[in-house]
Amino acid sequence: MKKMLVIMQQSPFISAKAREAQDLLMALAAVEHEVSVLYRGAAICQLLPKSNEFKDFKDFTKAQKLFDLYDVADVYYCAHSHQQFQHLALQRECHPLDLIQQQALIADYDEVFVC
Amino acid sequence: MPRLRGFLMPRGLAMNSTKFALFVTSESFMATPLIDCMRFIKAALQLGHQIDMVFLYQDSVYAALAEPDLPSDEPDLAGQLALLCQANQIALLYCATAAEKRGVQQIRPGYTLAGLAEFGMRLASVDKLVQF
Q: What CATH number should be reported for the domain holding residue A75?
């Protein structure tokens, strides 16, 4: 088992990459790796409550509710990125990190994925 | 004196061999990611390291597409990658789900279907992951 960090950077509205990054995260957790996730930049949108944005396609971010079941270790987000979204309320509990803390976090993992 | 011993070792034999997994997510029709990937494989092998697998995910799965209609002046990098992996017994895997969603159904020789779970399990036995 390895300590792995998946850094999410994609908006959920633009391409399949955000969905696929979440699939990767959950697959790695399902095979017993210790996986954490960091949402940065446009990926902050994955943490915002959805209203009508997803009415025409599947809201894959609902699967974040399964993170505990999959033993996803920690969920972090970039505080600076969140500020750019006017500190809107997030749809799940997660830990804010500034840039210095993110650098320290990355150094603490065996493998880091950037998706 | 490890550095001296390393210097005296024959070319191609590293003192501490590292087993790598290569994770490719970049769009494969753009030349750089596959070229970088192949350069990395050749350099690592030359230094005595091992490459356990190359795993294609997201837009890189287009590399697995059989018979792409490439302009005559463009090199077939995906074909070169397959030959390189085949010659060195490196597993060249592509994500089944990512490929299906992109309509990549006819697969060229040398590319093997795999899932994210298999990728995750194989990672347990590698030393380092490199993403392209």
A: 3.40.1260.10
